[in-house]
Amino acid sequence: MAAFLLRRLLVSVAVLFGISLLLFILVRTMPGDPAEMMLNPIGFVGDREAALERLRVQLGLDQPLPVQYVRWISELLQGNLGYSYADGRPVAEVLSERLGATVRLVSFALVIALLVGVSLGIIAALRRNTGVDYGLSFVSLIMISVPPFFVALVGIFVFGLTLRWLPTAGMGPPGGGGGFMDALYYLLLPGSILGLMLAGPYLRYSRSSMIEVLGQDYMTTARSKGLSSGRIVLRHGLHNALIPLVTVVALQIPVLFAGAVIIEQLFSWPGVGRMALDAILARNYPILMGFVMMIAVLVLLCNLIADVLYAIIDPRIRL
Amino acid sequence: MKKRTLLAVVAGAVALSLAGCSSPSTPNETGSRDVSIQLYNAPSTFSPLILQVGGNQLIQTLHWDSLVGVDDKGQFEPRLAESWDVSADATEWTLHLKEGVNWSDGEPFTSEDVVYTLNLMANPASGSQISGVFADIAGAAEVADGTADAVSGIEAVDENTVTLTLTHPNSAKIIDFAEPQYFILPEHIYGELPVADLATNPAFREPKVGIGPYLFSKWVTDEEVEFVPNPEYPGKLGLDHVYAKFMATDAAQAQLQTGEIDFSQVAASDADRIKELAGVSFHQIGGPGIMALHNAWDSGKLADPRVRQAIMYGIDRQALVDQVISGYGQVVDTIQHGPDWAVPDDLVHYTRDVDKAKKLLADAGWDPATEVRLEIVPGPKDREQALTIIAGQLQEIGMNAKVTQYDNAALGEAIKNRDFDLLISGYGLFNVDPAALNVRLLCDNGALSGYCNPDLDAALLAGIATTDQDERAAAYADAQRIMNTELPIFPLYVPDTLAATSERLKGFKVNPLPTNAFWNIAEWTVE
């Protein structure tokens, strides 16, 4: 295991370097000049060219590209992700603030998705080819097909405006106060909607995985031993059925971070997805590159965790 | 059974926790004097030196203050400058500052603060992106070049008086400094910091000292700012906390209905519905700006005035107002649509006339194959809709009109290359003083339209050369007539400014400028 981990770590570092180079090249060949974006041509009074030049020097955009890359990567290695063009704050600070918000949303959504998806999937597997199964397949189809923004708007309208049960936007009460219950309250609507959207695939995965497991020999053995069906399913079947799911979830986590952007937008949730979107539109390079590098690290980490977990759970796998 | 039991337990816990929860802890419980307000744009800094955008302007109105402001009747209101006079030849301005005003740390506000701030703003080396308005102040050019440290034309005569000496007469100079821009900074706080790049100094992110009614307290998130009352503010303040939060107008309107927010902008398409809501007060006032089409006149494509008039006759502007902004606005014949004395009665009113438009195009020898691009930076729905309608109407009169989408950077390029046909944009303060026209239309101002007409220049300059209102009115009448027939800018309509407040909020008065919505927050109270 140790050798495996070391090898993976070295490979990851090389991969990250490659990503940073590719990312830099791609982002900078994108059309758009952040200095131009910051000085609205229509409103500007005075010598705009001179102001643009000054701005470019200040942001370090006047240097040749390789110099800018070297400067950026060397600062990155020292832990300095640069400063946002929008408000001059350190990128690391902005990222960590917004990341916390997204982590909250995404982990809540993941829990809901797993609870709903897995339990319904298992029920569907156990009641395979009956009305319940077809019903649940239809439900999962709806979950996968209906766009999240539609569900979000309906949710806001029903639970927020009409029933007044839940808040319509934001992460907490104004002023940032409020305790755990307040946080949960604001999390409920966006988190549940995101979770339900995610549950569809999990439902299908766990259903098919469970069906496969139920057909295995050791299940027949357990049944012939006279064990109750509940014990069979839970004790013998479930663990094995969940193994592929572990991989799916681990690999999907980085996708979740970027994918929450629509929900974040609709609920004014101050998360990392919205931050990235704004950064793209404004050509806020430091934020954008910091964000993508973070996702890259996350992807590599999640892949590693998935592999290790798989090995731990399934003794047949030797790393 | 374990899994089922677990599920049941979790479900039960969730249900219990929800049941145990009372309604959301909104600030609007009875007795609370906290107010939440919407920012339609994300705030980033309290630095008044960088190019202002809505979110920053709105938060800076609370913490800082300007020399003058414009009230909801379109009149100048004194703010830090109590009164002002201008010499007969309009080259010397004297600002009399309010006396007995202190910064929030107890230090007195004096002319030194004003001189310091204006110098910073005039000096591009500080990172100031708003130095343009100082071009006609004596000594500013030398500071911009780097040959002088301070602007000689800005002088503190005594503790409460500042004089501005201009290189050219300008009887309306004061409007350049109107709120929500050109906020005055405390010299005793920032004076010690190096001038170079001061505009983006991180100290402006969390200013400790201010002079406005509500002071910065903290960034709750990077989109929400908390404000607390200024202990040194002259006058009684009615609120305990103000939470200014960036939120899309849709979300803000929803929050207004549930009572989670006290102020929100209103989109024209929702105005009819918001008006009818119980518990919500709807506010409407004629806007100060203009929605207009801009052409790079110097590119020559649409240089023939007959073509330009044809375009105006081809567009049904009333239909635009009715369809795009649900009637919440009005058609105007000139971009400077107020005050009354600045608008002559005899301007041509371009009501839609397809035949006339076609005839004008024929007279001008217009080649119908020429592509006319209707440029837009997509985003604001109203502009997109307006442009689509206009495209159809122009095609009807025989123009090959196409909507073309640009992003900000590409637009900057196009403007630099003087290559845009009909760019839609809305902006401006065009109903307080006609001097606002000067920066847009004088020949050598580098204005967007690139239009240059010596007669118009003469009229516009005559308008600011005298302080006599009748003389000014005559000069601007000439200018307006030229603009009306030559059409350097195509005026479409003036959208109304719409806002909504919760019933508990009292004292709110809607300001025509959306970026100045909190101009009288010192008078707000809650019940």
List keywords for this structure.
heterodimer; A: 319 residues; mainly alpha; 13 helices; B: 527 residues; 21 strands; 30% helix; 20% strand
Question: If you had to describe this structure to a student in words, what would you say it looks like?
Answer:
The complex is a heterodimer of chains A (319) and B (527). The mean pLDDT of chain A is 87. Chain A contains 13 helices and no strands. Helices cover 77% and strands 0% of the residues of chain A. With 527 residues, chain B is α+β, with helices and mostly antiparallel strands. In chain B, 50% of the residues are buried. A six-stranded mixed sheet of chain B has the order 14-18-13-17-15-16, with helices on one face. Chain B has a four-stranded mixed sheet with strand order 1-10-9-8, covered by helices on one side. Helix content of chain B is 30%, strand content 20%. About 2% of the residues of chain B have low confidence. The interface between A and B is large, with 65 and 66 residues.
User: Strand fraction band of chain B?
Assistant: 15-25%
The percent of residues in helical segments of chain B reads 25-40%
Question: What is the 3D shape of chain B?
Answer: globular
Q: What's the number of helices of chain A?
A: 13
Average residue pLDDT of chain A: 87
Q: How far apart are the first and last residues' alpha carbons of chain B, in Å?
A: 55 Å
Unreliable segments of 5+ consecutive residues of chain A: none
Rg over alpha carbons of chain B? 26 Å
Query: What is the rounded Rg of chain A?
Result: 24 Å
Task: Describe the strand arrangement of the main beta sheet of chain B, using strand numbers.
Answer: 14-18-13-17-15-16
Total strand segments of chain A: 0
Summing up helix and strand content along with how strands pair, one would put the structural category of chain B as alpha+beta
User: Helical amount among residues of chain A, as a percent range?
Assistant: over 70%
Largest interface: A-B, 65 and 66 residues
Biggest sheet character of chain B? 6 strands, mixed
